[in-house]
Each structure stands twice: as structure tokens, then as C-alpha cells.
Write a structure and sequence with these properties.
Length: 158
């Protein structure tokens, strides 16, 4: 099943992947340079560059692990009920203030593009999908049932 992703996020993902490729090439140069200094056992520059490259490769693999993608256009996002690409304002029965959640996917979460992301795979995301304005739902939080109400459903601004 393809991973849902906003068109703007897909652009940001492509840019991030290109940036990671560039960093990987630069780090490879650092590794070659550090290796040319001789004894690798005590070469801190070499080990630091290898560790940096390892982190870059892991981050890139994580991003790629979510493919294939299904790009969601802004025109496909609806506001009559909660779905992917919505900014959802929710009130919680035991709090005075509402909170905004962005119902998105793992790539938006990984790229940290929006505040308070609820992925559509998460229990919270699954609980709000399909809910309508002013509809209540209950989730178990820390061993007790907590009531929430959907107070607004908007498209995420592009």
C-alpha cells in the first residue's frame, strides 16, 4: 500500500534526498582525506567521518523505506470529515484550550514540517479519521477513557 504524501512534502523530500546525497559525497571526501593521514585505529577524524556517513545513510534509508508514494494534491483534500491533509482542531474534556493536529503521514513527521502531527497510522490518527465537525470520540489515555470533540476541520495550507 503506498504511503500518502502531500505534493509539497514530496518536493521537500526530493530536496532532502538531494541534500543527503551531497552530504554523503562530502563525507566520503572527508573519509578519504582522513584515511590518507595513516593509522586508522587512532584517527579520530576518520572515525567521526565514518559515523557521520553512517547516520546519513540511515536517514536516507528511512526516508526511502516509506515508498512507494501516493501524492495527494491539495484539491483532493476535503473538509466535510477528517482525513489525510487536514488540520483538525480538537477539544479535550479535561482541558480548557483546544489543540490543532495535522493528520499526515510518516514523511511529514520525519521531515518535521508541521507542528503536532498525528500520522494516519497512529491510534490517535485512526480514531479521528472519518469524524465530522462537533463529533465526539473517546480514547483510552493513561488507563482512563478521555472524551474529545472535533471543533474544526481545515485543509492544511500549502
Amino acid at each position: 500500500m503506498p504511503t500518502l504524501i502531500l505534493r509539497d512534502t514530496h518536493r521537500a523530500l526530493v530536496e532532502e534526498m538531494e541534500s543527503l546525497d551531497k552530504l554523503k559525497r562530502e563525507t566520503s571526501e572527508k573519509i578519504r582525506e582522513a584515511a590518507s593521514h595513516g593509522d586508522l585505529k587512532e584517527n579520530a577524524e576518520y572515525h567521526a567521518a565514518r559515523e557521520e556517513q553512517s547516520l546519513i545513510v540511515r536517514k536516507k534509508q528511512l526516508m526511502q523505506s516509506h515508498s512507494p508514494f501516493r501524492i495527494i494534491e491539495n484539491s483532493e483534500i476535503k473538509t466535510n470529515e477528517v482525513g489525510f491533509g487536514n488540520k483538525v482542531t480538537i477539544s479535550r474534556e479535561d482541558k480548557d484550550e483546544t489543540e490543532d493536529y495535522y493528520l499526515l503521514g510518516p514523511i511529514e513527521f520525519e521531515l518535521d514540517l508541521f507542528p503536532i502531527i498525528a500520522t494516519y497510522h497512529s491510534p490517535f490518527g485512526k480514531a479521528i479519521i472519518g469524524k465530522k465537525l462537533n463529533e465526539d470520540f473517546t480514547l483510552e489515555i493513561e488507563g482512563k477513557d478521555t472524551k474529545f470533540t472535533i471543533t474544526a476541520i481545515e485543509k492544511i495550507p500549502s
